[in-house]
Amino acid sequence: MDCQATDLNTACRHVFMARVRGHADYPDDARVEASLVQWNRLMAMLDAQLARHAHVAGDDFTLADIVLGLSTQRWRSTPGAKPVLANVEVWFERLRRQPGFAAHVDNGVA
């Protein structure tokens, strides 16, 4: 979960705030693009982990899935070029079937 708070949140800040929130404090297009590139790299690391296990921390659903599921929801909703990450997609679809996840994360609010 530390990686979500320190790595993913840092990587996504500029692109998410500029393209999803439309925040005026993030006007630098080069920095926004660099943010997306870094975010994509970290999401590819998640995809590699999910190639080995059904969930983030192993074979059981844990709090790590909820935390990284939120980051994945933001990544999916942010405009920009993103790689196809098949393992992330399969895992995310499983998360979407969790009633709490559907109500509080996959609810159209970015």
TrEMBL record:
<dbReference type="InterPro" id="IPR004046">
    <property type="entry name" value="GST_C"/>
</dbReference>
<dbReference type="InterPro" id="IPR036282">
    <property type="entry name" value="Glutathione-S-Trfase_C_sf"/>
</dbReference>
<feature type="domain" description="GST C-terminal">
    <location>
        <begin position="1"/>
        <end position="110"/>
    </location>
</feature>
<keyword id="KW-0808">Transferase</keyword>
<dbReference type="Pfam" id="PF00043">
    <property type="entry name" value="GST_C"/>
</dbReference>
<dbReference type="GO" id="GO:0016740">
    <property type="term" value="F:transferase activity"/>
</dbReference>
<dbReference type="InterPro" id="IPR010987">
    <property type="entry name" value="Glutathione-S-Trfase_C-like"/>
</dbReference>
<protein>
    <submittedName>
        <fullName>Glutathione S-transferase GstB</fullName>
    </submittedName>
</protein>
